[in-house]
Specification:
The structure holds 2 protein chains of 2 kinds.
Chain A: E1 12-18, E2 21-27, H1 33-40, E3 59-62, E4 65-68, E5 81-83, H2 96-103, H3 113-126, H4 132-138, H5 149-160
Parallel strand pairs in A: 1-5
Antiparallel strand pairs in A: 1-2, 3-4, 3-5
Helix pairs in contact in A: 2-5
Chain B: E1 5-8, H1 12-21, E2 25-28, H2 34-39, E3 47-50, E4 59-61, E5 67-70, H3 75-79, H4 82-87, H5 89-96, H6 101-106, H7 109-114, H8 165-172, E6 175-180, E7 183-188, H9 189-192, E8 211-217, E9 225-231, E10 242-251, E11 254-263, E12 270-271, H10 273-279, H11 286-296, H12 308-325
Parallel strand pairs in B: 1-3, 2-3
Antiparallel strand pairs in B: 4-5, 5-8, 6-7, 6-8, 9-10, 10-11, 11-12
Helix pairs in contact in B: 5-8, 10-11, 11-12
Classes of the chains: A alpha+beta, B alpha+beta.
GO molecular function (chain A): 2 iron, 2 sulfur cluster binding; metal ion binding; oxidoreductase activity, acting on the aldehyde or oxo group of donors
Protein name (chain A): (2Fe-2S)-binding protein
Pfam family, one (chain A): Fer2
């Protein structure tokens, strides 16, 4: 059977558990997870920066691991658990990383911040960073055009409980 | 990104059948490179065959003491696997030198081998590129070619292979396991990627309709005397200008076995058996390392903007061999070059 590249395929039904809530969507296959979150679930905390996996603004956790949602097709994550910046606080209390970013003024314009915090949450879960050098290296997938890096590293150190 | 159809393969045999049934289809696993290229309209598959749920995620010891790594193991899982950290730290180091934590969580081992060059002209559908449209010409040869190849180039293409992982795999003598319509086969990683020649649009010797199922590492891991040094324009999250994977076995001060592979300088990870032979049986000295660098870089040719790479590579080879010989491998977190 020949594929017709310009033939519109059927929408594909998928289930995602987003921030603890099951969501059902019918999506065309080229919908990225980023666009599904922002345009279909109205979760606009996750930001679109470069849309090419180079800036990290779109970072979310998929089954607990940090990924670039702009390079992820939503249909490929059918059944996955997604955590976005909107899902980090619990019972009205900020996530320790959110509080640490406030404590350390770890942002200026704030556009990269949701991605920075989700990426830092992934970094804490991975457990490979033990000091500032390792935090810097393992956060290098998140750019901050305001240059807030020293304060971002300090905030993560606070949340990590390590100097 | 163009519209495309989507299929989810249930097992390797199903993936092979789907590939055969849909000639314009491509396999997708992590998607980090393919989706990026699709957004630029460089890749325009009529269908994506999702192989991300296939059971190719194991890391297992082989009977001979090597390691078999499923093609869908994420790059990060491979780099932090205890057996890889202990026995193949060169591979762990090279993987952690590449991309970002997010991308390493997504990218599969098989996909890493299949990633395409980051030549800016290949990424731009408005400029001629023999990889994109065979016969259209190479814009890099007379264009901006600071990042381009100095070894194994052709009149058709001076692009480089961007992988760090493959450089370590080349040094370690890895095998690529492949399944296809006519059964299974294996080939050396060093034979998997091709030089551009006059067919630069063909990156690898993976056949039409075939799928990578695993990477196999031989038992020899060079866990004591190794280093991966990556030189790039910023300290992290950038492609290599030059990278070097060095692995030695020493008896006293004498080199009994040597492997050196280069990244960022050619269309494939670059090894020279002659350079490695010249190191064996010799004392681990700067003079010997310089001689090996000369042999590795024999025939290197520069384009208009990348002449510096030849001397950069020469020095990086000597430095990396020195790090390996003194068992002080380059740290990928602490950026000072020892």
């Amino acid at each position: 059977m020949a594929d017709a590249a310009n033939q519109i395929p059927d929408r594909i039904p998928i289930d995602l558990v987003v921030n603890g809530v099951r969501r059902t969507l019918d999506l065309v296959p080229w919908t990225t997870l980023l666009d599904a979150l922002r345009d279909h679930l109205e979760l606009t905390g996750t930001k679109k920066g470069c849309d090419h996996g180079q800036c990290g603004a779109c970072t979310v956790l998929v089954d607990g691991r940090r990924v670039n949602s702009c390079l992820t097709l939503a249909v490929m994550k059918d059944g996955a658990e997604i955590t976005t910046i909107e899902g980090l606080a619990s019972d009205g209390a900020l996530h320790p990383l959110q509080q640490a970013f406030i404590d350390h003024d770890a942002f200026q314009c704030g556009y990269c911040t949701p991605g920075q915090i989700c990426s830092a949450a992934g970094l804490l879960a991975e457990g490979h960073a033990k000091n500032a050098d390792e935090i810097r290296e393992l956060m290098s997938g998140n750019l901050c055009r305001c240059g807030g890096y020293p304060n971002i590293v300090a905030a993560i150190q606070q949340a990590m409980g390590r100097p | 990104m163009i519209n495309f159809q989507y299929s989810r393969a249930t097992d390797v045999a199903d993936a092979i059948l789907l590939l055969a049934a849909h000639p314009g289809a491509k396999l997708i696993a992590g998607g980090t490179n393919l989706i990026d290229l699709m957004k630029e309209n460089v890749e325009q598959p009529s269908r994506l065959i999702d192989i991300s749920r296939l059971p190719l995620r194991k890391i297992e010891e082989t009977a001979d003491g090597g390691l078999r790594i499923g093609a869908l193991v994420p790059n990060s899982d491979l780099a932090y696997h205890p057996l890889v950290e202990q026995r193949y730290p060169l591979l762990a180091s090279a993987i952690l030198a590449g991309a970002s934590a997010q991308l390493r969580n997504m990218a599969s081992v098989g996909g890493n081998l299949m990633q395409r060059t980051r030549c800016a002209y290949f990424y731009d559908t408005a400029t001629p590129c023999n990889k994109q449209t065979p016969g259209s010409g190479c814009s890099a040869i007379d264009g901006r070619n600071r990042n381009h190849a100095i070894l194994g180039t052709s009149a058709s293409c001076i692009a480089t292979n961007p992988s760090d992982m493959s450089v370590a795999l080349a040094a370690l003598g890895a095998l690529v396991h492949i399944a296809g319509p006519s059964g299974e086969r294996a080939m050396a990683l060093t034979d998997f990627h091709r030089l551009p020649g006059d067919t630069p649009h063909i990156d690898t010797d993976l056949g039409t309709g075939e799928i990578i199922t695993a990477i196999e590492l031989p038992p020899r891991g060079f866990a004591h005397n190794y280093s991966y040094l990556k030189i790039r324009d910023r300290l992290s999250y950038a492609f290599a200008l030059v990278s070097v994977a060095a692995a030695l076995e020493l008896e006293g001060d004498t080199i009994s076995e040597a492997r050196v592979a280069l990244g960022g300088v050619a269309h494939k990870p670059w090894r020279s058996l002659e350079a490695e032979t010249a190191l064996r049986g010799q004392a681990a000295t700067t003079d010997r390392f310089s001689r090996a660098a000369d042999l590795l870089l024999r025939g290197a040719t520069a384009s208009s903007h990348n002449r510096f790479k030849i001397e950069l590579a020469r020095r990086a080879i000597v430095r990396t061999l020195t790090q390996a010989a003194s068992a002080t491998p380059q740290s990928q977190a602490h950026k000072k070059i020892a």
